[in-house]
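Changelog note: in this version the structure field was regenerated for every chain. One regenerated record is shown below for reference.
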Amino acid sequence: MSAIVVNHGLGARADSVWFPHFTAELTALGHSATIPNLPDPDAPRLAPWRKAFTEAVAAAGPVGDTVLVGHSIGGVNVLRMLEQHDVAAAGQFAGVLLVSTAAHEVGYDLLAEFFAAPFDWARIRGAAREFRVLAAADDPVNVPDPVEHVGLLVRGLEATAVLTATGSHLGNFPGDHIELPEAVRLVDEIQAATR
């Protein structure tokens, strides 16, 4: 059994977008899935979000059996948490799935601090064994070119990506309750690769 910990995006909570279906599917497969409600979701701050997510991950179980998932700015928060992860002391995470995650600032002043420093790609890569990226080519949030964001993440993380032609931000608004079977498949793929 693996532990999956999800970092939600702006304005979202555990019951938003594809999270209920995702959690149900993974639970049916015998895994535990946690989606902590991070502080001030409508006005996220890097330090409190990173701290809250780090605490939720620590409570989830052994690092080597844990898959981290981030949606949108939640994916950026996962990357920022991995930059501070002490691999020598705690070991590598099983893997990471980033869904509709930006590789650089996209024009939201509210979220600018998440992108203020360049990503330490080498340190992030060393913190997990497998990386996957899931995004849509018509994403209206990851501007100016959603495919460019995917390419930067793939190169920086040495990740495998799945790029769909459509799907927008794969959950544009918290109330968009959708199924995202591709996310379940990619988590399962990460688990298979790290067994």
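Spot check on this record: The mean pLDDT is 97. The longest strand covers residues 128-136.
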